Amino acid sequence: MTARILFVDDEPDLEALVLQKFRRQVREGEVAFLFARDGVDALAVIDGDREIDMLVCDINMPRMDGLTLLKKLQEAERSLSTIIVSAYGDMANIRTAMNRGAFDFLTKPIDFADLEATIAKTLRHLGELREARRRQAAAERAHAALSRYFSPNLAERLASEGVELVGQWRDLVALFTDITGFTTLVETIKPDVLSELLNDYLKHMTEIVFSHEGTVAKVVGDALHVLFGAPGDQPDHASRAVACALDLDSFSEEFREAWRAKGVALGATRIGINAGPAIVGNFGGAHFFDYTAYGDTINTVARLEAANKQLGTRICISESVVRQVPGFRGRPVGDLLLRGRTEALRAFEPAPAREGDDGALEVYLRAFALLQAGDPGALGAFAAQVSTRPDDQLASFHLKRLLNGQGGTRIQLD
């Protein structure tokens, strides 16, 4: 790239002298020189040429001196690397020039070897500044793109460190959400209402995910696909995922009630969580960014999310997650035979921490223990639970199974 340098000096023979001294650099396209007789001419040249890289400027000139020119450029916020070349080399001029943005200062008569070295140094500095700006702009673009998927802190780190999001195996926790009956709802409400509802819902759901440092891998309609433990390491990724699920559930229920008051029957949000290995990375090809995960862990979490429909729950978590959460508080659902799997998977429903708990969790746990042991008393225990808490969908699910002669904790799902 040819550096464009503007010489500002009223000496009549300077132009020919400069072109002679720098003829090799001009011939090889390293530099191109422009010339102005004073500050007024220089401003006109600068206004007409936005590609000028630097100035070499005298101080004492007619109409507008070099120090005034520097001040004008400073006021116009036009940053140009400037070398002052003047016979007036006293400290006052040097300080004034530097305060007005000069990069270096040489005295006359001009030592062209020194001038050549100073120009080369200035151009290197200019190149470093441009590279720094380029990197900053690239980081800002990357941050803007990554902020769609990652929490702000993680997006900033990924953008600044230039992390390669290539495919790799990672142990992670995946969380899927889905709104019950959303497809049917779409066909019954106006487009502008749907747009308002869905955008507001996804905005707040995504903010909750980001607050727990989760990664939004996909947004598919009303559904979120979220990862914890990727792309960055999170030793407590399972605990984060469970806490996030509880916050998502709390928000979605409040959101659902708010829209019900507006006459829109929004279904419950179902959430599934599973832990295990998966291949994660950017699989968007050359034109798209698509950071996502593949593998049995991901297939299973999708089925756990769907299992909520039959179980009557809103959150269904695999045992592989529960084992990684210290002090997990929740209820065992049973040993689920998910579609496409031959082995049963123990699942749980997390319990939100509430003050003044009425002991319902302990009552359920005793009833489930009887169910697991094949004790006939399980029927009465679940019946008592449903009697005192008719809104307990999971207890009602087990009671119905027992009444239909389906004992034990092994549950075949569609």
- Summed over residues and divided by their number, the pLDDT gives a mean of 86
* CATH C-level category of the largest domain: Alpha Beta
Percent in helix? 40-55%
User: Which homologous superfamily in CATH is the superfamily of the largest domain?
Assistant: Nucleotide cyclase, GGDEF domain
**Distance between the amino and carboxyl termini:** 66 Å
- CATH-scheme architecture of the largest domain: 2-Layer Sandwich
The parts where pLDDT drops under 50 for at least 5 residues are none
Give me the secondary-structure category: alpha/beta
Number of domains: 3
In short:
With 414 residues, the chain is α/β, with parallel strands linked by helices.
